[in-house]
Design brief:
Length: about 450
C-alpha cells in the first residue's frame, strides 16, 4: 500500500472511532484509514500519519514510535486534553495535540504536511544510501541526518558547529558521502594545527622559487579538492589576512598560488567546522563577517554527547568492534555496571573521549568483559562478585587510598597487561616513557615491588 496516503487511528475509545473514521472518509475518500488498537513496531513505518488517542501511556508510546521511526508524523487527539502532557508531547516532536472535534480543514493540513514530510524523508533516504559513517540512535540526531541528507547534494557551503569531540569531521564526511561529489576527492585541513606561515601555502599552493626551499611547484588543498569537497576544520582559528584571501577564492572560484602569475580555476564544495560561538567570534572581530555570511548557507549544530545519552551504548559497541578488528581479537562485552557508569559520566570530551575510553578499556579488559575499573573513569570501583586476581588489584582502589598508591596500582596493572613493554604502557597511560621510567625508579628506591 502507498505509504504517502495511509492513516492510522490508534487506541481510540469505541465511541470516538466511528466519528473520526466517517469524517476522514468523507473528507479524504481516496486515502486509506486503518483502525489500530495495538501498534506494533513493525507496523509504524506503514503509515504516513498516526492519529493517536491520549491516555496515561501516551508518552511511552510516542517515544517508542520515534525510536523506531524518528520521522513519524504523530497527531495526538484527546477528549478534554492535559496542558502539561500536551507540552511534553510537543517537545518530543509530535505534529500537534488537539481536542475533539477536529475541523475538516485541520485534518487536511495534517494530511498535506505528513505527505510532504514523507516525500522529504524518502528523498533523504535515497541520498543516504551507502552512507553509514555517522553512528547514532538518538532521535533528534537521526532527524538531523535526514535534514542534512536533503541539502548534501547541493553545492551550498555548510558550517558544522559543536563542542570539541562531537564528531564534526565525521559529519562533514557524511555530507560528502551523501553528495553528488562523493566520487571525487575529499580533502581536509585543520586550520588550527598548521603554523600560520605554512597555512597559506598549504591552502593555495606555491610555484617553484616562491620562497626559500620551494624547489618545485606544489598544488594547494583547493586544487587537490577540485570537483570534490574541501573541509576547513576549525576555520575560526584562521588568521584574518588569510580569511580575506579565502573570501576572494570563494567569490571568484579561482586561486592564486604563492609566486604564481595567473589564477587557477577551481570547483570546490566547502564544509567548515568550528567549536566556537560563531556570532560571538564575529562580534569579537576574530572572524570576518563577510566570510561568515559567505560560508553560513547551511548550519549544522551537533549536540554534545551528554545531551544524547541514547548514543552512548551504540557508540561504545561500535568502537569496541573497531578495536577488535584492529587488534584481531574477540569483541569484549560491557558489564552492566560499566554501561551504567558510561551513562552517568559527563563526557566533557564528547565522542572522542568515549572512543579513547573504549580503546583503553579494550586493552585493559580481562576474560572478555569490560568492568568498571577498566574504564578509567573517576570514582569507579569494581562491582562485587568478581574474583579475578587482576580485577581485585583495582578493586582495592577505594576512598581513602593515597593518590600515589592508586597511581602505582594503575602502572603495575598496565605493565602486566602489555607484558612489561614500557613504551606501550606509557602510551596507554598517557605519559612519556621518561616519566614512566622515573616513576619505576621511585618505586624501586622506596622498596615497592612492581612488575618492570
Amino acid at each position: 500500500m502507498n505509504k504517502e496516503h495511509h492513516i492510522a487511528i490508534v487506541g481510540f475509545p469505541m465511541q470516538h472511532i466511528s466519528g473520526v473514521q466517517i469524517q476522514l472518509g468523507t473528507l479524504l475518500p481516496d486515502t486509506p484509514v486503518e483502525i489500530v488498537m495495538q501498534l506494533d513496531d513493525d507496523m509504524i513505518e506503514q503509515f504516513s500519519l498516526l492519529l493517536i488517542w491520549d491516555d496515561v501511556t501516551i508518552t511511552g508510546l510516542v517515544h517508542r514510535i520515534f525510536k523506531q521511526c524518528p520521522q513519524a508524523n504523530i497527531v495526538v487527539l484527546a477528549e478534554h486534553g492535559a496542558s502539561n502532557r500536551a507540552q511534553e508531547l510537543m517537545d518530543m516532536g509530535i505534529m500537534d495535540y488537539r481536542t475533539l472535534p477536529c475541523p475538516d480543514e485541520v485534518f487536511e493540513i495534517y494530511v498535506r504536511k505528513s505527505g510532504h514530510q514523507i516525500a522529504l524523508h524518502q528523498t533523504s533516504k535515497q541520498q543516504q544510501q551507502g552512507s553509514d559513517i555517522f553512528v547514532t540512535e538518538d532521535i533528534e540526531t537521526r532527524r538531523l541526518l535526514d535534514q542534512v541528507a536533503l541539502v548534501a547534494p547541493s553545492n551550498a557551503s555548510v558550517f558544522v558547529v559543536g563542542e570539541s569531540g562531537t564528531g564534526k569531521e565525521r559529519m562533514a564526511r557524511y555530507i560528502y558521502q551523501c553528495s553528488k561529489r562523493k566520487d571525487h576527492a575529499f580533502v581536509a585541513i585543520n586550520c588550527a594545527a598548521i603554523p600560520e606561515n605554512m597555512l597559506e601555502s598549504e591552502l593555495f599552493g606555491y610555484e617553484k622559487g616562491a620562497f626559500t626551499g620551494a624547489d618545485k611547484a606544489k598544488p594547494g588543498k583547493f586544487e587537490i579538492a577540485h570537483q570534490g569537497t574541501l573541509l576547513l576544520d576549525e576555520i575560526t582559528e584562521m588568521p584574518l589576512h588569510l580569511q580575506a584571501k579565502l573570501l576572494r577564492v570563494l567569490q571568484e572560484g579561482e586561486v592564486d598560488r604563492l609566486g604564481g602569475s595567473k589564477p587557477i580555476k577551481i570547483d570546490v564544495r566547502i564544509i567548515a567546522t568550528s567549536n566556537r560561538n560563531l556570532e560571538q567570534t564575529v562580534s569579537d572581530g576574530h572572524f570576518r563577517q563577510d566570510l561568515y555570511y559567505r560560508l553560513n548557507v547551511v548550519t549544522v549544530v551537533l549536540p554534545p554527547l551528554r545531551s544524547r545519552l541514547s548514543d552512548i551504548k551504540p557508540l561504545a559497541i561500535h568502537f569496541l568492534n573497531d578495536f577488535a578488528k584492529m587488534y584481531n581479537k574477540p569483541i569484549p562485552s560491557l558489564h552492566e555496571v560499566s554501561l551504567k557508569a558510561l551513562m552517568l559520566h559527563r563526557w566533557e570530551g564528547n565522542v572522542r573521549e568515549l572512543e579513547n575510553c573504549m580503546h583503553r578499556s579494550f586493552l585493559m579488559a580481562f576474560d572478555g568483559e569490560i568492568l568498571p575499573e577498566h574504564l578509567g573513569l573517576e570514582g569507579l570501583t569494581t562491582p562485587s562478585g568478581h574474583n579475578n586476581t587482576n580485577q581485585n588489584k583495582l578493586a582495592d582502589v577505594q576512598a581513602g587510598m593515597s593518590i600515589r598508591n592508586m597511581e602505582r596500582a594503575l602502572i603495575e596493572q598496565t605493565l602486566e597487561h602489555v607484558q612489561n613493554n614500557r613504551t606501550e604502557a606509557a602510551k596507554l597511560l598517557g605519559i612519556s616513557i621518561r616519566t614512566l621510567r622515573n616513576k619505576l625508579k621511585e618505586y624501586q628506591s622506596s622498596n615497592i615491588a612492581i612488575a618492570a
